[in-house]
Specification:
The protein is mainly alpha-helical and about 70 residues long. The protein has one domain. It is built from three helices and no strands. The chain starts with a helix and ends in a 13-residue tail after the last helix.
């Protein structure tokens, strides 16, 4: 399988940094007060959705199959 052909389209570093920053924010929120637990979850969910959208928008799933519906 020719992995390099489709991996170039995905900015894995940007997705990693998005999730790492969100995790840091969530941890900070969780250590402040219990009321911030929902906000922490929201931060992580938003970052995950953002990364998923970036990945899907490249049109590849990572296994050479198109991620976009036909």
């Amino acid at each position: 399988m020719e992995r390099d052909a489709f991996d170039r389209n995905v900015d894995y570093k940007a997705m990693y940094l998005t999730m790492a920053r969100a995790a840091e924010t969530a941890i900070r929120l969780l250590t402040e007060t219990r009321e911030d637990a929902r906000r922490a979850a929201d931060v992580l969910i938003a970052a995950q959705l953002d990364c998923e959208e970036r990945y899907v928008s490249t049109g590849e799933t990572g296994d050479g199959v198109s991620a976009r519906p036909q």
